Amino acid sequence: MGDIYRALADPTRRALLDALAAADGQTLFALRNALLERGLTPTRQAVSQHLDVLEEAGLVHVRREGRYKFHDLDTRPLREIPRRWPIP
Amino acid sequence: MGDIYRALADPTRRALLDALAAADGQTLFALRNALLERGLTPTRQAVSQHLDVLEEAGLVHVRREGRYKFHDLDTRPLREIPRRWPIP
DNA sequence: TGGACAGGCAAGTAACGACTTGCCTATGCT
DNA sequence: AGCATAGGCAAGTCGTTACTTGCCTGTCCA
């Protein structure tokens, strides 16, 4: 499994997590549009590669249906953070 | 203020936070030794530069006493993470 | 007062990461 | 069947970042 810290390091990936937190189960194109509305201008491939990183980190899960690929947020890997450095 | 996500992205910096979570108020040399015991082999300057990044992110605070510089952990900036992406 | 110890500064290198570009595959609709 | 849509693959570019190297400053103590 990948590295959640590296996954969180990029602002575009954080915006993707934000978009998924607002609406789960979005496709690649829908997510790209969500980023465009937030002022970011990534290409489709850029979004795709970012989603790969998020998936490897276990923060996003993918389910395929026909020609669509839906993305779901999973924040559970983030539990490691407050467990590792307890927050008062 | 800097970026906590970028600060967390590097494994050496995370090891520094681990070392400070285990024992607060360590000097640069003490922290370097702590990393050496964890199998990392950073130079003094590398450690110094990592501490700068952590300080800019607000995760580490510094107090100077004579020729020593003590480093203290502050995990409060990490609160943003579970607030931004709620963890079930 | 001089030397050992703690740390600082700055320039250079090397590798990694984000992003693009071009082309390809697969599914659904008319 | 044919075209548009959703997505995939792979190589290449460019900027950032981690790390080194060399030298310098400041503090403490014998």
From TrEMBL, chains A, B:
Tree of life domain: Bacteria
Keyword vocabulary terms for this entry: DNA-binding, Transcription, Transcription regulation
Listed InterPro entries: ArsR-like_HTH, HTH_ArsR_DNA-bd_dom, HTH_MetalResp_TranReg, WH-like_DNA-bd_sf, WH_DNA-bd_sf
Keyword Iron-sulfur applies: no
SUPFAM superfamilies on file: Winged helix' DNA-binding domain
Domain HTH arsR-type, residue spans: 1-88
Gene3D superfamilies xref list: Winged helix-like DNA-binding domain superfamily/Winged helix DNA-binding domain
Name of this chain's protein: Helix-turn-helix domain-containing protein
